[in-house]
Structures are given as structure tokens and as C-alpha cells.
Design goal:
Elements: H1 6-16, H2 22-33, E1 37-40, E2 46-49, E3 62-64, E4 69-71, H3 72-76
Antiparallel strand pairs: 1-2, 3-4
């Protein structure tokens, strides 16, 4: 079990592979964390499996429900 956030893990990967191209680093990140289980420790503890990593701008990624649609940026604001 790791005691670091997913963001810290990704930052470590980027530091180790800083000489590689951006797309190569992103491919390494995906290969390292897809299908891993992460735990959220705020509120009720929950476990989540990482299915994919999205590298797009938060404004271009849309989430939709039965009643509405919004960008990830709007969701997190």
C-alpha cells in the first residue's frame, strides 16, 4: 500500500522520465496506474479502480447525466 496521492505518483513518474517526450511520459503514466486500486480517505472510505487517464484540458472533457451536461472544470468549481 502506498501512502501518496495519485498526483504525487504521477509527478514522480514525470521526474524520473523528464528527458522523454510528453507523449512517452503520458504512456508510462497510463501503463503504471490503469487497473490500480486507489482509496479515497475523505468522508466514507471508498476504493476505486482506475480505468483510464484523461490528459485533455478540463474544459473540453464533458460529463453528462440524465438531466444535465457540464465540463469537468465546471464540476470541480
Amino acid at each position: 500500500m502506498r501512502n501518496q496521492t495519485v498526483l504525487q505518483f504521477i509527478d514522480d513518474i514525470y521526474k524520473i522520465h523528464k528527458s522523454k517526450e510528453k507523449d512517452e511520459r503520458r504512456a508510462i503514466v497510463k501503463s503504471e496506474i490503469i487497473d490500480k486500486i486507489v482509496m479515497s480517505n475523505y468522508g466514507k472510505t471508498r476504493y476505486h479502480r482506475i480505468l483510464d487517464v484523461e490528459f485533455q484540458d478540463l474544459e473540453t472533457v464533458m460529463i453528462t447525466s440524465k438531466t444535465s451536461s457540464m465540463s469537468l472544470k465546471e464540476y470541480y468549481q
